[in-house]
Specification:
Elements (H helix, E strand, L loop, with lengths): L1 E6 L7 H11 L4 E4 L8 E5 L2 E5 L12 E3 L7 H13 L6 E4 L7 H9 L1 H6 L6 H9 L12 H15 L4 H16 L3 E4 L8 E4 L24 H5 L6 E7 L2 E4 L15 H6 L10 E4 L1 E2 H11 L5 E7 L7 E5 L2 E5 L2 H11 L4 E6 L2 E2 L1
Parallel strand pairs: 1-8, 1-9, 2-5, 2-8, 5-6, 6-7, 9-13, 12-14, 13-16
Antiparallel strand pairs: 3-4, 10-11, 14-15, 16-17
Helix pairs in contact: 2-7, 3-5
Length: 358
């Protein structure tokens, strides 16, 4: 069984908890990150454990291994730090990394944090976009390079020249993290996708941030939808398209403004979407079905069953959406979800209320 989890909006839809739920149904699944990289922040709760995943797949709390495809960036420093946090809660995550993954350095992060244009367009401040720009400029550093000491040091020195930035403390942290990765027996560099009968593809961001779908320049430089599967000739058995019960955006860029939404408590919304210096506060507004449908149409026709997953239902007092020039409002979560499923022409609908899927 091959499943794909894809966000429908501007990110923060609930992809992580959806992957975790699917891992409870398909316990032998390999979770595959196929787009984006370490800039993702996928929040998962399982039993008494809770974690925000950036460098590991969202099935890790259940023991599912992760494969990081060549389309994704890796951050050795971030991997090491997140691994320690997972170990502190009793999780030993297993990670396979494609040898061709672009590597993010401390210099990429610094360049990101000080690039006014990048920040204005919308950025997490962790060097993702800068890494890809540097790669295109031929100053390449990939995961396979990390295992040849001389090649890594030569390339890293040229990257420092590229940015005209040499910081000994940051360099030491980077090299220490790389050496740790080499010793860690749960992290493996591989040539390609490990063989597995069951796969869950975990998307990054959402369709409305896709570089070919979203609203330039406020997009992510990656394919977050089905283009990846079409390019790689991968047949998906079941698609799970995810949205919150309301529209969100964390970072700069356009949003729909069709009406106010009523939160049960604003603190519930803000708890897992904290303000940071690069993205500022997360904004929220009424769900715009016309925009979601437009994004789905731009994503293209998909094969297999198609389910819409609607998360964060517990955040709202009443449930409403904008469609075809008018607002639909109801006091019933079920009516709200079924109506959306029918309008957007999905085969099935899954409701997520307080991390419980029905």
């Amino acid at each position: 069984m091959i499943n794909a989890v894809i966000g429908m909006g501007f990110g923060d839809e609930g992809k992580g908890c959806t992957v975790d739920w699917l891992c409870s149904l398909y316990s032998d699944s390999l979770v595959v990150r196929y787009s984006g990289g370490h800039q993702a922040g996928h929040h998962v709760k399982h039993d008494d454990k809770e974690h925000i995943f950036s460098n590991f797949g969202s099935g890790s709390l259940r023991g599912n291994p992760t494969y990081w495809s060549e389309k994704c960036t890796i951050d050795p420093v971030g991997i090491r730090e997140e691994y320690k946090k997972l170990c502190e809660i009793g999780i030993l995550p297993k990670l396979y990394i494609n040898k061709n993954c672009p590597v993010t350095t401390p210099e990429d992060k610094l360049a990101n944090m000080t690039n006014k244009t990048t920040l204005e367009h919308g950025s997490c401040g962790v060097g993702f976009f800068e890494t890809l720009k540097r790669q295109k400029a031929m100053y390449s550093l990939i995961a396979g390079d990390l295992f040849c000491q001389s090649a890594m040091e030569f390339k890293y020195a040229e990257i420092q020249k590229f940015y005209d930035n040499v910081n000994t403390i940051l360099s030491e942290s980077f090299f220490e993290s790389v050496e740790w990765m080499k010793r860690c027996n749960l992290i493996t560099i591989v040539d390609g996708l490990p063989s597995n009968q069951s796969i869950i593809f975990e998307g990054s961001q959402g369709l409305l941030l896709d570089q070919n779908i979203g609203f330039f320049p406020h997009v992510t430089p990656s394919d977050v939808g089905d283009k990846y599967f079409r390019d790689e000739y991968i047949s998906i058995d079941h698609h799970y398209f995810v949205t919150r019960a309301y529209q969100t955006r964390h970072g700069n860029g356009p949003m729909t403004d069709k009406g106010e939404i009523q939160f049960v408590e604003k603190e519930i919304f803000e708890k897992t979407n904290k303000e940071n210096q690069f993205q500022n506060k997360m904004r929220a507004t009424m769900l715009d079905l016309d925009l979601l449908k437009w994004g789905l149409d731009r994503n293209g026709k998909v094969c297999g069953d198609k389910t819409i997953v609607i998360t964060c239902l517990e955040h709202l007092k009443v449930w409403s959406f904008w469609h075809d020039g008018q607002v639909f409002t109801t006091n019933s979560k079920k009516d709200f979800c079924v109506k959306i499923k029918n309008i957007l022409e999905f085969d099935n609908v899954v409701m997520c209320d307080n991390y419980t899927f029905t």
